[in-house]
Queue: 2 jobs
Job 1
Amino acid sequence: MFEIGPNTRLRVSPFFEKTVEEGVIAFSPYNKMLMPVSYGHPMEEYDRLMNGVALWDVSVERQVEIIGPDAATLVQLLSVRDLSNIEVGKGKYIPMCDHRGVIINDPVVLKHSDTHFWLSIGDDNILMWARAIAAERGLNVTMCEPDVSPIALQGPKAVNVVADVFGDWIHDLKYFWFKETELNGIPLIVQKSGYSKQGGYEIYLRDGTRADELWNIMREAGAPYDIGPGNPSPIERIESGLLSYGGDNDDNTNPFEVRLGKYVDLHLPDEVVGIKALRELHAAGIKRHQLGVKLDNQSPQAGHLRWFKVYKNGAYVGEMTNGCWSSRAETVIGFILVGVDVQPGDRVEVHRDGNIDVGSVCELPFF
Ligand code: THG
């Protein structure tokens, strides 16, 4: 066994002590923080998400706060999705690309006002990127990473817990909308969102010193619904076809290849970073695409942590970018990023740790 040596570059979640109390046994690095990824009972953790309610420390979803007269301009320059009609109080899922049209993040943007936005980012340094673009374009904005740390309540019973705590207005909150509120003076934002397809809410804590209080409140309110700790589930998100930025893409992946084309608005002005390249990529047609694969003759096993080569009729066609045992599919399923010659219904061979596994290609999502 080994430890992570102490250092001041690793930022600590305000919920860290609580997750330790809950029995966390594994973390994954994300935005220079550690995200809890296991509490040691994978079946129970998956079951809670599918049938009950799970409480996740997702404070690694850092916020890039953009304030100022040019804030809306900057956010649009950074997003390849048209934000001209985004309303105050609403979030939107926005792929971000570099000048080559290559995806560099997939944040949720929250519009607080015409001059105040948060980018709720995936794993990468978007504050640095946004500062560079703002400076190059001479925009009048200020940016920081504020003291904001989200938790998520996900699963079919999340709504009961959140409504018991905050009140009936929770039932009127529409998908991706959010509301500023407080609980015993703890400043919060509640949003109907989260990285699963099982429904739920994210609560953005706006004062890290109150993390224990917030965790305890949600834990106690969730007791009648058998709440327990959990984390963004690799199994559920693969079953549901959610992209994991950083896991499912490489340094050349564009949004069209990974099913994010519907979030790309090619009519946006040329100034939007990456849009000119995306128009060219779209006109030329994609060479790779993301599909699902179901392997034959598998038994329950842990998920995989690196890409595996995929062959069709003996020729290399691409990579299997994730994979896990799915009890719903009763086999190992995963995403493949493969040449467009590979189509649903095809049979492929996946070279996994010295074995050759045969599988069938299918559309995503699996469920
Ligand atoms: N919540 C918040 N911030 C985040 C994440 C989150 N930042 C990092 C990471 N997750 C970003 N990635 C995603 C990926 C998918 C979704 C949200 C964030 C998502 N997608 C839905 C889907 O694909 O069906 C809806 C997209 C839409 O149609 O608008 O929810 O989880 N705060």
Job 2
Amino acid sequence: MAQKAKFASKIGLVAATVGSAIGLGNVWRFPAEVQANGGAAFLVVYVLCVLLLGIPVMLAEFSLGRSAGTDAVGAYRKFSPRSPWWLAGALPVLASYLILSFYMVVAGWTLEYFVQSLSGALYAGTADASGAVLDGVFRDRMREYICGSSGPLLNTYALILLNLGVLLFGVRKGIERLSNVLMPLLFVLLLVFCGVSMSLPGAADGLRFFFAPDFSKITPAVVISALGQAFFSLSLGMGILITYAAYYPKKTRLMRTAVTVSLLDMMAAILMGVVIFPAVTSFGLGDAELEGTALVFVTLPEVFARMPCTQLWSVLFFLLLLVAALTSTVSIAEVSVSFVQNRFRRSRRAACLIVLLPLFALSALSALSFGSLSGLKLCGLVFFDFLDTLATNIMLPVASILLCLFIGWRRPGVLRGELSNYAEADHRLQRPVAFVLRWIAPALILIVLVSGLL
Ligand code: PFF
């Protein structure tokens, strides 16, 4: 019951879901994907994926979670006992665990940048005598850091411990409350940075790259990346929204919640693009070796270095990003924790340890991917990128197809009831959503998946 009380207020409920959605996916992963996949063409496909597939799949997760009132595997079990459908709930648990393992690493980079901003080390010696920012200095710093061993490893470990602390000592509510205050501030900061970025010389080229689509750039690989990004960013296909919705009050309107969460999440990503791309073209960073993965960590300090009160903006931004990352890691971890707790009947404390301790080994492999383990390649990708691609571009879409089929065909009554909050009249959008979940979403996701893999 205490759990139920957590989401008693409407704002609390939407905010916690937004808190899970907004994170490094928007700030770090989105710009990197846009850059790797041809700019505006990717943006167009991504927006379509969020609107046409993301929102219906989110509604399916919400409906399943709220009506079952338990974790992802339990939810499938409840509605389809003694059938292999539970596997459809196990897949997201596995995917979310893999994601958690490399997400901790990027959260660790954020911690490093926060600490270095605070101490001033990030900006020390980066300007010449006249105060002009030295060429490529932040790129070199990031490269040195990310390719090192002890830095990324220690920060990743610090993040795992931080998560353990939050989950074990029940300060999760506090973190969520903190994030409710800080997330609007993150939007305000992004707006300020958008203004600064757009006034840089050469900014127009960056905006063109981000907003003027060249449709010939759309390939199956671009579409699958856009789909993966949309699902990653909305926290879909990982069981997290099933787990969260289990705590939603019965009167919450699911459609309104799904639309609000999706639009806010998309807005954060697009604002981030407006911050990054003008800066990328203005500073000539487009062809940096570490493009993609390290893009944001190379570009943002360049922007801050050109603003008055550099250190203040930098500290504030990386602090907010750290909190955003923490609300996301805690929510991802919750998927596995509640799974272990419910399925293996463990205490919460034991479940937290069972989930987080193995990360000291698994996350280490990702943390060292760009340094001492850069020679370890799977399917031509370093370990970090391999896990990201496997979990995001393959496992999330597959989990989502299964969810759509389950809700669309096997338990359509769940969606009908939940969308209308069990009122007499059907929800006006119930039919179109059910149609999308039955036919459009599974077919489209499958086509994207297969063509992307071929
Ligand atoms: N959606 C989060 C982000 O964009 O950073 C990441 C995330 C949170 C993924 C929760 C998965 C999850 F279950």
